[in-house]
Every structure is written in structure tokens, then in C-alpha cells.
Design a protein that fits this description.
elongated, two-stranded antiparallel sheet
Amino acid sequence: MTEQPDNQPEDQGTDVTGDPSEVALSRKEASLSGASESGADLENRPQSQQGPGWLPALMAMSLLAGMAGFICCGVTTWLLYQKRTELAVRTLEGAYITELEQSYLDPSTKRAVVDEVKELIKGMEAGDYENWQSAAIMQRLQRLPVVQWGDLQAIELFITKGNEAEKDEQLKEISRLEQAVVDGTVTSFDFQDVLEPVHRADPKSSSGFSLILPLTSEPVAEVCLRAKLVADRAKIANRRFPKVDLAAIVRQEISQGGTAGGF
């Protein structure tokens, strides 16, 4: 029998069994290493792979809040739409009559116009006007230069008391502008432009402006020039017209608003 050399390598398939304590320690270290690598993988994982989180809930809450706001807005609009007459009464009593009483309308005109407005308020409170009629009347009154008419009367009085050579011509242009209101071709917006030279900003006034006093010739002449341009645009005859009854115009606009509606 031939003996194998002492330095012959062992078979590769032979299991090598070491110290049991060393084997257990190696397995524990391998387990800890695997857990550490798993934690690192979770930390290094992109956000897109970490799940949606709170995003769907936030989107749902935003959507519900938007729907609730839309519903509340619709309900509020509907309620206001159903209370147009009540809102009109509050506006007339709380603001419009106050503006009239503080205006430069001559006493008789002011009293007649205020009486017309108070009669309108009584009719609204008594239920004589439907909501659409009240809205139409308010629209027409806003377009009517009632408060600005007082400023125009103050200018007319200034011209009358003056000794200007152009007095007759200026009074004619004022008269033509007033006639344009009778014809319905000029509104309060046109009056604001015409009266701009004699107006100043006034935050205390409900209209946002007030008449510059005392009046002087230069800005008054500019007002008359602008009145002429507006009257020419409205194709008003180049002559002086009879005195206009402002209260009658207010009464007519109220009547038309109740029958024909707004503009």
C-alpha cells in the first residue's frame, strides 16, 4: 500500500468544521450587516418609491374646500338676488338721500327730488316693486346726474353774478348740457368729466369728490367748454332751453325703470 504525502491538499468538497462559538459570531455579524444595508437602502431610496404620503388627503381636502366655497358663494348670490328691493331701500335711505341733502341743489329742487325718492322708498317697502324693478330703478338713478346737477347749478349762479363778456354764451352751454340729460343722451359719467376742473378729491364725500370753493373764472370757463363739447356730441340744438325740472326727470326715470327695466 502506497502512503500519501503529508503535504497533499485536502479535497475541496470536504466540509471544514470550526469552533461553534466562532460560527455563531459570524452569523450574528452577517445578520447585523444585512440589517444595516437594508436600512441604508431605505434611506437612499428615491422619494418616488416611498409612497404618496399625505398628498392624496391634502388634494381631497382642497377639493372639498373648493366645492364648499363654491356652494356658499352661490347661495349668497342667490340670497342677495332675492333681496334686491331691500338692498335698494337701504342704499336710498343710507346714502342717496344723504348725498342729496348735502348737495348744492337749490332748496326747491332739492326738496322736490328728495320727496320723489322718499315716495319711491315707501313703494318699495310696501311691495309695489318686484326685485327686477328695484334693480332697474337703482341703475337708472345711478346714471342720472342728480348730485352733480347741484354743482352745475352753483356754476350757473356764479356765471349769472359775474360780469364776463361770455356770460350769455356760457349760460347757453350749461342749458344745452341740461337738455341733453332730458333727452337721455348724457349721464352722470359725462357730468364727472365736465365738472372735473372744479372738483377735487374728497375721501369724506360719498361720491369721492367735492366742489372747489370759491369758484373762479378760469375753471368755470373750462367747464363751459366741456359742456359745449358734450352737448355737440349729443347733437343738442345750439340755443338756450327753458329751465329743466330735475324732479320730473327723476320721476320719469323711476317710472321707466318699473316698466321698461334698466339699460
